[in-house]
Structure formats: structure tokens, C-alpha cells
Amino acid sequence: MAEDLSVIKGTKQEQYQNLIPQIENLITGEGDLIANLANISAALKEQFGWFWVGFYLVKEDELVLGPFQGPVACTRIKKGRGVCGTSWQEGKTILVPDVEQFPGHIACSSLSQSEVVVPLLKNGEVVGVLDVDSEYLNYFDQEDVLYLEKIVGMISI
């Protein structure tokens, strides 16, 4: 298991391509989901410096805050509420260039301006979501979606 992260500058693609094998090394051989989600959150935050990055896990009828990096966050989110709850309900990635334009957006922080949420699936069922926020408008794009979906796909649940 690698314990140091090699953070690089460069294009977004170069950063993801450098980071993904390191995440794979961090989680390979570690069977604990929470430990892996914590390390993935930390690796993404360290590489990209995003405002907030973390996971919410489905517990009964709510998403409950899991491992994250950033300021304090909403603890529980109902299905269909906000970007995370909508991603859970629809079972798909949601890219939001301007959170103020997203109907029902939950403002855990007024500093968050754009967001991408990727569902974690087990046997076709959403069991959690990866939530990434930026303090800048239009910060994320389809390239982020592609690589974040790839990272989420590496997680064994």
C-alpha cells in the first residue's frame, strides 16, 4: 500500500491519469469500505484542491455523510432532495455548472457554486454517492465525469 501521494501539475487529464493508479494502489488489498472512501476523498482533495469532496452512504431511507475532505457538511439527505438525493433517485451522474440553478439544491455551504455527483452501485442498486463541490461556477465538465465514474467503479462494496 502506498502511503504517499505524488501530486502533479498539468492538464486535468494528466492529473487524473497520474492519480488513478495511485488510488488503485491505496485501495488494493484493503477490504474496509470506509478506509477506502476516506483515502479516495483525501487523494482527490490533495490532487485537485476542490472545495469539498466526499461520500454519502445509503442507510435505510437516507444518504448519511461518510468520509470526506472539506468544511462541515449536511449529515443526512433524503432520496430525491438536492443533487445527491437526485443522483441516488435517478441512479446516474449529475453535473451541475451552477448550483443556484438546480431545483431543490441543498446549500450545505453558500460557498459551493458547482457540483458533480456520481452514484456508487452494487448489483445495479445505488448504495452511496461521491459528491464533489467547487467554489467556482462551471468548474466541472464531462472529463471530470468520465474520470470520477472510473474512480467510483474501482470501489468494491
Notable traits:
157 residues, alpha+beta, Beta-Lactamase, 6-stranded antiparallel beta sheet
Please explain how this structure is put together.
- This protein is α+β, with helices and mostly antiparallel strands and 157 residues long.
- The protein has one domain (12-153): Beta-Lactamase (2-Layer Sandwich).
- It has helices at residues 12-27, 33-48, 82-90, 142-153, and strands spanning 52-59, 62-69, 76-78, 94-96, 114-122, 125-134.
- Strands 3-2-1-6-5-4 form a six-stranded antiparallel β-sheet, sandwiched between helices.
- A hairpin with a 2-residue loop joins strand 1 and strand 2 (62-69).
- Helix 1 (12-27) packs antiparallel against helix 2 (33-48).
- The longest helix is centred in the N-terminal third of the chain and has 16 residues, at 12-27.
- The mean pLDDT is 92.
